[in-house]
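[Discussion] Sanity-checking designs against the backbone

I'm trying to build intuition for which residues belong where. Below is a structure token string of 427 positions. I'd appreciate it if someone posts a full sequence so I can compare it with mine line by line.
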């Protein structure tokens, strides 16, 4: 227990670390002022009694009290005493020497032992503080016996009980202070966590709305424009052979094509941040590299191509959900994600060597992912299955207890996408 630990056991000054910490609490300030008042009041009482009784050494008593008050005030105002334990110990040594001089000329110096107890416990480590209290108590007893011809139990019990009360008071206060600090840190942590959760919820809401808008644009406006373009192309082909081309149909086709391209740009602008700076394969590789815990490997099969944004979002979200559950529940050592491009479909496989589970016993409620089982039975399978089936895909889960888990998602690519896309580089 250093002097820097609690800022406010009754003491004359803040602990060494106090300047870098928070300011004293109102209770700490009151205790500090009370100790100042007690110390100086006892000195004034000793000097006043000596002067009023016209004691033979009244002048020496007043001088010793003045010297002790000066040493005390100098230490209270010295910044080094507030910061350095060594400086505090030197100041206590000076106080002890001045107090010994007062004890030598007046039995009333015994009273100063009580505030000295608190100063020693406050400025020194606990074991040294207790030792200093014991030495101070012995000095007080010796000073009293030197000025008194009668030896009474009170001469011993008074200083010893005073030291015990001081030790118990300081230890109790420090225990309360530590508990208060733990509560304060817990409250600060809760406030920080609440702010982070609120920010995460806002971010999740924004991403969900972006995905919804992208899906709506793709499924309604973009699909409608694509259908119009196909119908206009069919109308041109249906014209009699040798008939002049109708300019209105050609202009309508161009307008439909331009608006379809604009709709696709809107959809790409609403792409989640994970897909903004690269392809789906690149996003999945970054996802595997950032997973804590099990070793996750990413592999790519087939000729990569640009997928419609809803397809990329669905596959990325399914991979994120599955890996999250692998990390939280599967206790797996290895996992692998494979993205396979085929002529008319794309497949995503997530396999781990974790604990596995019984898919037939998985709860229907939403959960974090689709890896091995969790304690609450929530696997997130319905949410993942819904993402796949919304795009006309197939979602399958294979697992057994102790045998790991394999999740597979196959999405058929729309016909118009197959006609207008070319293979691209994966990364």
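Best answer:
Here's mine. Compare freely.
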């Amino acid at each position: 227990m250093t002097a820097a630990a609690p800022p406010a056991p009754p003491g004359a000054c803040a602990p060494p670390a106090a300047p870098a910490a928070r300011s004293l609490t109102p209770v700490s300030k009151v205790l500090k002022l009370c100790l100042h008042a007690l110390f100086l009041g006892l000195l004034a009482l000793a000097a006043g009694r000596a002067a009023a009784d016209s004691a033979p050494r009244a002048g020496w008593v007043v001088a010793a009290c003045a010297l002790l008050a000066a040493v005390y005030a100098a230490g209270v105002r010295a910044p080094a005493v507030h910061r350095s334990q060594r400086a505090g110990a030197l100041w206590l040594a000076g106080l002890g020497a001045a107090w010994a001089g007062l004890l030598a000329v007046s039995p009333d110096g015994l009273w100063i032992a009580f505030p000295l107890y608190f100063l020693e416990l406050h400025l020194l480590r606990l074991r040294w503080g207790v030792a200093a209290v014991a030495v101070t108590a012995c000095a007080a007893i010796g000073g009293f016996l030197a000025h008194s011809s009668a030896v009474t139990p009170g001469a011993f019990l008074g200083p010893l009980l005073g030291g015990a009360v001081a030790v118990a008071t300081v230890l109790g206060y420090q225990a309360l202070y530590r508990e208060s600090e733990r509560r304060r840190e817990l409250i600060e942590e809760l406030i920080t966590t609440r702010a982070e959760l609120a920010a995460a919820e806002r971010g999740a809401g924004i991403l969900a709305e972006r995905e919804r808008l992208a899906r709506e644009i793709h499924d309604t406006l973009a699909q409608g424009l694509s259908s119009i373009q196909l119908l206009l192309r069919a109308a041109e082909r249906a014209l009699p052979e040798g008939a002049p081309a109708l300019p209105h149909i050609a202009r309508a086709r161009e307008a439909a094509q331009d608006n379809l391209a604009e709709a696709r740009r809107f959809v790409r602008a609403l792409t989640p941040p994970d897909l903004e700076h690269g392809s789906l394969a690149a996003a999945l590789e970054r996802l595997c590299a950032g997973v804590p815990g099990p070793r996750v490997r990413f592999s790519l099969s087939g000729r990569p191509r640009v997928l419609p944004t809803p397809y990329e979002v669905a596959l990325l979200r399914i991979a994120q959900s599955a890996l999250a559950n692998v990390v939280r529940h599967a206790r797996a050592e290895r996992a692998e994600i494979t993205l396979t491009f085929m002529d008319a479909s794309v497949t995503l496989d997530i396999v781990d060597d974790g604990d596995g589970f019984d898919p037939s016993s998985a709860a229907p409620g939403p959960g974090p992912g689709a890896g091995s089982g969790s304690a609450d039975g929530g696997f997130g399978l319905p949410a993942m299955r819904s993402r796949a089936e919304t795009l006309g895909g197939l979602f399958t889960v294979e697992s057994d207890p102790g045998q790991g888990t394999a999740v597979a998602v196959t999405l058929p690519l729309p016909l118009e996408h197959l006609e207008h896309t070319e293979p691209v580089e994966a990364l």
